[in-house]
Amino acid sequence: MAQSDVFHLGITKADLQGATLAIVPGDPERVKKIAALMENPVHLASHREFTTWRAELDGKPVVVCSTGIGGPSTSIAVEELAQLGVRTFLRVGTTGAIQPHINVGDVLVTTGSVRLDGASLHFAPLEFPAVADFSCTTALVDAAKATGAKTHIGITASSDTFYPGQERYDTFSGRVVSRFQGSMKEWQQMGVLNYEMESATLLTMCASQGLRAGMVAGVIVNRTQKEIPDAQTMQQTESDAVKIVVEAARRLL
């Protein structure tokens, strides 16, 4: 790994050229695609699940850095980017909806998350809300509307695990521990929109430390209908969500 000012990302403060906003997808493969929608994209480093690029929006530097899957690796990326001067984080990803009225291809903007993770407890007690920053949420909603995307705004259930924590029974054992049996129905009744795996950590970490964070995700499957997404639809939905997060970043700079 090249010279680095932080433990994992393999980048320096000078690499960011004063960037204070980061777009943080989970998948390293998405990073280059996002950076390509901006000006002057430059690959900075790739180490483990963390791939980092720098680009510009209207002449202002923006960082794009993958977090990997789940809260623990997300917390590493956010911590080290904050050490290097980033103060605003926009997460973009894909998600499974759990409300029947939400269609595949729609976009969800998270206002807050159900903390079904463990990593967020390392930053604030469970009573502390995993809430998105208002300005980030507004920018994401406005950007989504500008693209014409059908947008849903609300609460996300953010789980440490993809299978039991999201009450999936299509597994090796077919078993879900009692804590999560019937949990999806409960979240549906409370109006929760979707499941994903990073927002609880991101939002708790940022809200408790004076950082700004927002979250947008494209719906690739509706769990009330099926469990496995269509590959072509998944690609298009991902592309739509990425365009929205870049436009939101432009509005926040």
TrEMBL record:
It catalyses: uridine + phosphate = alpha-D-ribose 1-phosphate + uracil. Keywords: Cytoplasm, Glycosyltransferase, Transferase. It is an enzyme of class 2 (transferase). CDD domains: UP_EcUdp-like. It comes from the Bacteria. InterPro entries: Nucleoside_phosphorylase_CS (IPR018016), Nucleoside_phosphorylase_d (IPR000845), Nucleoside_phosphorylase_sf (IPR035994), Uridine_phosphorylase (IPR010058). Residues 20-245 form the Nucleoside phosphorylase domain. Its main location: cytoplasm. One of its GO terms (molecular function) is uridine phosphorylase activity. Its EC number is 2.4.2.3. Belongs to the PNP/UDP phosphorylase family. Catalyzes the reversible phosphorylytic cleavage of uridine to uracil and ribose-1-phosphate. Homohexamer. This is Uridine phosphorylase.
